[in-house]
C-alpha cells in the first residue's frame, strides 16, 4: 500500500531533492490561528507537516515546545480538536503528508482503536510517539500498521548497530534520526557526524532517513539535507511563532506570516542542498 | 466470579517489566539502550555475593541498620486497640528510608562506571540521601527539585548544598515533584553517556520499580525477624504512606504472600478527594507517564493534573506500578488521609511518643488513629515511620501559628 508519505518521497526523489519537514504544535497559540498556519505551510515550502499533539509533560522536549504545548492546552486544545484540525486541512489539501507527533497518554486515554480509526479518516498519514520504543510495539505501533498508518520511529546517537534492526523492524514511512542526545531545541547538529550516522542507518534500511533536533537556520538545513532524505525543523518555527505574539500570548496580525516566511527561507536552504552537494 | 488470584504476589514483574497491565518501559529511544544496560547491570549485581556483602556492610555501618521496631506504648494506650509498632526508618542516616535505595543504586552506578548522578526530589529526603552517598563515593551530584518545594523544604536544600550537590529549582509546570522528574529525564536524555539517574521511588521505566523495591525490601525483611523476636509471630497488619510508594513497597513486599497479614497504603487526600489532592488510586485511573503505566491523576484528554498535598514527598500525580497492580488484585487496601488529618497525627505522635514524624508518614499515622481502635488488643500493627520531621518543622510551625492555610 502506498501512503501519502511514500508518494511524496517518490516524487522528491524524481526531483532530486530532500524533503523539508516542519513541526508546529496543534492549537498554538489558539486553534483558529494554528489551522491558518498549517494551511499556509505547503505553499511556503513544507513537503511534509508534523503536528504536535499537546501534552502537559513532554519529557523529551525543550522549553520552547513545552511552552507551545501549554499555550495550546490553555487555549482549549485537545486530541479530539487536533484531529478536527487535520480534517479541516484535508478539505483543501489531499497531497501533503501529515504526521502527528507526541506522547502516548492522550492517545491511550482517547482509546487506541478509536484513535486509529478517527486519525485515519481525518487524513493523518503517520505517527511519531516519543515514549513508545520498540519494546512497547504492541501498544500502538502494530495496531497502527494494521490500520494503514505509518509508525515512524526515532533513531538516536545511542541506537547502535546492534539495536538498529529492532528500531527499524516495524518502522515505515521514514526513519526520524534525532541528531543529538538531548531535548528539542538544545544543541546544534554537527553536519559531518550526522552525515555518518545517516549513512550507517541507510546500510540497514531502504526507508528515507530524515534528520531533526538542532536545525535552526537555512544553512544548517542545507547541510543536513545534503546527506539526509529530509530535514525537520521545529523549535525555530515555534520560536518565530512565539516572538510574534502579543504580551498576553495571543496571536497578532504577524503570526501566520512570521512562521510562513521562516518556512520559505528554510525550504530554500533544503531545496538548494542536493544540487549544491553534486 | 472473582478473577483467579496469582500463586504469588512477589514474583513480578515479568521479563518486560509488567505487573499485570502496569509498569513497562515508556521512554524515548535515546534512553532505551541505557535502560537495557541498567537492567543487565542490576541482574549481575543481584547475583553477585560480593555486591550483597558490600552493601550489607554499608547498610550496617553507614546507614545504621537494622532500624528498630519500637512498641509505641503510649500511642497504643491512647488509641485503645491494636498494639502499635513503629518501624523506625527515620533513624537511618539522612533521616528516612530513602538511603536504602540510594545506596543500592549508587553501588550499581559505580559498577557501571558512571561518574555523574542525577536525581529528582520532592520533600528533599531522596535528594539528601543521594547527595550524601555521592559525597561518600566522590561522585558529581545534581538534584532537580520543584521551585515550590525548594521554598517549602529549605532545611533539606541547605543540607544538599552542604553535601556538595547542585540543587536545580525547576520552574516548569506546577513546579513540584512531577516537574522535577520531567527535568531529570531531560537531563538524562542529554547526558546519557556519563550519567546515572537515581530514581527516588518505585516508579519509572523497568527495571526501576523492581530495583527500588528490592533495595527497600530490607524494611519488611527486618520487620519479619524483629516481630518474631518481639511477639513470636507475624504482624496482623501493616500500614505505610504512599507518594510513589517506595517505603510502603519495602515494608509490604516481604509479606505479600502471607494471607494473614492485612496491608494498607495511605495516599495523600490533600484538601479532600473532591478537591485538590494527590490520591492517584482513589481519584485517578490507569495512564502512561514517566516511563510506566500506572494510576494517574488526569483529565478526560489524558492531560496530567497537578497534585496537591501538604507533604511535598507525597505531592505526585502518580504511584508506583506495582501498587496499581496490588490495588487491582485486591491484595493491598488503599486509603487516604487529608492534610488536616496528617497534621493532627503529626502532633499526636510528637506529644505521645516524643517522635516528630515527617508529614509523609503522618498520613499513615492518621489512618492508624482510625484503624487501631477498631482492632482487638492482641492485634499487631506495624506502621512504617519512613522519615523524621525536622525538614517540616518550619512549615508546620507556620501553619500551626496560623500564618498560612
UniProtKB/TrEMBL annotation, chain A:
Classification via PROSITE patterns: TRP_SYNTHASE_ALPHA
InterPro entries documented for this protein: Aldolase_TIM (IPR013785), RibuloseP-bd_barrel (IPR011060), Trp_synthase_alpha_AS (IPR018204), Trp_synthase_suA (IPR002028)
Name of the molecule in the record: Tryptophan synthase alpha chain
Gene this chain is encoded by: trpA
Protein EC: 4.2.1.20
Enzyme class: lyase
PANTHER family: TRYPTOPHAN SYNTHASE ALPHA CHAIN, CHLOROPLASTIC, TRYPTOPHAN SYNTHASE, ALPHA CHAIN
Pathway: Amino-acid biosynthesis; L-tryptophan biosynthesis; L-tryptophan from chorismate: step 5/5
Complex and partners: Tetramer of two alpha and two beta chains.
Species whose genome carries this gene: Bradyrhizobium sediminis
Gene3D superfamilies: Aldolase class I
Catalytic activity reported: (1S,2R)-1-C-(indol-3-yl)glycerol 3-phosphate + L-serine = D-glyceraldehyde 3-phosphate + L-tryptophan + H2O
Keyword Acetylation listed: no
Active site: 50 (proton acceptor), 61 (proton acceptor)
From TrEMBL, chain B:
Catalytic activity, reaction form: (1S,2R)-1-C-(indol-3-yl)glycerol 3-phosphate + L-serine = D-glyceraldehyde 3-phosphate + L-tryptophan + H2O
Alphabetical list of SUPFAM superfamilies matching this protein: Tryptophan synthase beta subunit-like PLP-dependent enzymes
Record keyword Amino-acid biosynthesis present: yes
Gene Ontology MF terms: tryptophan synthase activity
Necessary cofactors: pyridoxal 5'-phosphate
Residues that bear N6-(pyridoxal phosphate)lysine: 98
Family matches, as Gene3D superfamilies: 3.40.50.1100
EC number: 4.2.1.20
Catalytic class of the enzyme: lyase
Pathway per the UniProt entry: Amino-acid biosynthesis; L-tryptophan biosynthesis; L-tryptophan from chorismate: step 5/5
Protein origin, superkingdom: Bacteria
PROSITE patterns assigned: TRP_SYNTHASE_BETA (PS00168)
InterPro entries (UniProt xref): Trp_synth_b_CS, Trp_synth_beta, Trp_synth_beta/beta-like, TrpB-like_PALP, TrpB-like_PALP_sf
Domain Tryptophan synthase beta chain-like PALP: 64-387
Keyword Amino-acid biosynthesis: yes
GO cellular component, one term: cytoplasm
Alphabetic keyword roster: Amino-acid biosynthesis, Aromatic amino acid biosynthesis, Lyase, Pyridoxal phosphate, Tryptophan biosynthesis
Oligomer and partners: Tetramer of two alpha and two beta chains.
Known function: The beta subunit is responsible for the synthesis of L-tryptophan from indole and L-serine.
Family: Belongs to the TrpB family.
Record's protein name: Tryptophan synthase beta chain
Source species: Bradyrhizobium sediminis
